[in-house]
Task: inverse folding
């Protein structure tokens, strides 16, 4: 099986867990600790992504939350005290490559366009209705006044997993567990 070199910045306890249990899975309490008062939002978002990807990539049945990976050395997160970087050679069948811009649209409750022309048409539609904050269609009462537009935005979110960007540096990798045999380097900061 072919592998792809990736990098992830984690806390040192992740490496301890890999060594002690033979794998690492993100747990809900880890997401809560990292995201504090916005953790409910990320938990819901990560569960949505996980379920959407189940049919696209091999993942453990007990996986609930993604592990984010840099796909190039230039994308690696910078060194930060109390963290470490794992260099991983991940089997292709467990790695999902995601267009980072499309993911950002989904995170922000925006319409995920098919292409530039579709995005321009959508923005014209928002302008025609006088909608300056597109996210308010999802997060606020504005969606009650424009239910078709709200449904259109929500339906577009599945495009997040349709295809990665042709430029590898515009993408991010996602896996749902880390196995010790994938780890090729551990850098403690």
Result:
């Amino acid at each position: 099986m072919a592998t792809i070199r990736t990098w992830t910045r984690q806390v040192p306890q992740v490496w301890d867990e890999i060594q002690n249990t033979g794998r690492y899975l993100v747990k809900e309490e880890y997401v809560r600790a990292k995201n504090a008062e916005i953790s409910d939002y990320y938990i819901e978002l990560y569960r949505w992504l996980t379920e959407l990807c189940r049919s696209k990539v091999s993942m453990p049945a007990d996986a609930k939350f993604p592990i984010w990976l840099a796909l190039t050395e230039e994308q690696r997160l910078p060194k930060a005290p109390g963290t470490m970087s794992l260099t991983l050679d991940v089997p292709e069948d467990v790695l999902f490559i995601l267009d980072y811009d499309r993911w950002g649209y989904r995170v922000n409750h925006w319409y995920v366009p098919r292409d530039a022309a579709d995005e321009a048409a959508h923005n014209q539609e928002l302008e025609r209705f006088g909608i300056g904050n597109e996210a308010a269609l999802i997060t606020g009462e504005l969606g009650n006044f424009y239910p078709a537009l709200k449904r259109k935005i929500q339906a577009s979110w599945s495009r997040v997993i349709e295809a990665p960007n042709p430029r590898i540096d515009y993408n991010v990798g996602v896996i749902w567990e880390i196995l010790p045999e994938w780890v090729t380097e551990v850098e403690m900061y």
